[in-house]
Amino acid sequence: MAAAQDGDTGAYQQLLCEIAPLLRRVAARRLYSAPAADIEDVVQDVLLSVHAVRHTYDPARPFLPWLMAIQRHRLADWMRRSMRRSANEVAVESLEVTFAERAANTDDEETIDRKEIHAAVAGLPPAQRRAIELLKLKEMSLKEAAQETGMTETALKVATHRGIKALRALLGKDR
Questions:
Q1: pTM of the full predicted structure?
Q2: Residue 106 class from Cβ within 10 Å (0-12 exposed, 13-18 middle, 19+ buried)?
Q3: What pLDDT, in 10s, does the model give residues 122-159?
Q4: Burial class (CB within 10 angstroms; exposed 0-12, middle 13-18, buried 19+) of 39
Q5: Which residues contact 38 (CB under 8 A, 6 or more apart)?
Q6: CA angle, corner 71, sides to 66 and 72, nearest 5?
Q7: Which of 152, 175, 154 shows the shortest CA–CA distance to 164?
Q8: Dist. CA 121–CA 132, nearest whole Å
């Protein structure tokens, strides 16, 4: 490493080639259940860190403890990232079963029947019903719905708001 710090590119290349297998073995031992690609990622992170902080190495001290400290820190970084990723992952195998269960696909504890929703929408005053149908069911823009109904955009917003409020009351939703 001392020769590499002095600018000897051949010595630096040889050093990297010699430490890579050691780094791979240590990473594989510490991350025994990790895929090979993750182990290789850790090794690459360590090599990049060695390159970035090579100026901090003191040639009067042993090289291996300095290298292993860098690897220990990169392994800790990998573990933190891995824990964050796994906390947000969903097992794909369980999705098919979940989607097969109708109740599991709703945020509500009770599933509201489509016929009940259509009946509630049909019971709204005409302006509210038309606003809900165009803006929420047909997903038209405010401008398109205003042109079709002859209502202003503001009137459509008000009718939609009041219609949703009425539907929540009719269906027993107090949100």
A1: 0.48
A2: exposed
A3: 889 999 999 998 998 888 899 999 999 999 999 999 99
A4: buried
A5: 31, 78, 82
A6: 95
A7: 175
A8: 8
